[in-house]
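Researcher: Go.
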Amino acid sequence: MLSDPRLPPLRFSAEPPWPGGRAGLAPDVTLLALLCLGLGLLALAGALVAPGLQAQPALRLRVLGLGLLFAAVGGGLLARRRWARSAVLGMLAYAAMAQLTQGWLQDDVLCALREALTGRADAQAGHPSAGLGAAWSIALCGLTGWYLLRLSGASLRAAFSAGLHPGTASGRPPARNG
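Model: Structure:
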């Protein structure tokens, strides 16, 4: 009664509706996207309420711009946008180069984090020996280089070129007729 022999049989599948659906995004890329999104939103909120930044408009604009960039890139990675993948590749390449040439992560960022957590400024915070050393720099650059190669690999490049709607050539939702 309910089945018509002219209709094809119903097939149920546990697969996502399209290849590499939302669950198909690599966990490390999802974590990176959420980390970028979270850092961006924190930077935006901090730039609006931090009293130290209110007195320094140039620094406040820089923090607002970086917060907006990180939030946009995090959202773009979650939406599988190619421009977001390219932006992350550029940011990681810049971070690796800056770490190799200037050691900014260990000398500036980690010392500022340690100062914020402990509530006191270290007397040797600006001294190069207060950093974590050359081995730490090389390890960070190696990890960044590996992740650069991972993001530029064929499988992730294909996932990002398909976007959220891989059934279409452009990765955009199909056009509605009517």
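Model: The radius of gyration is 23 Å.
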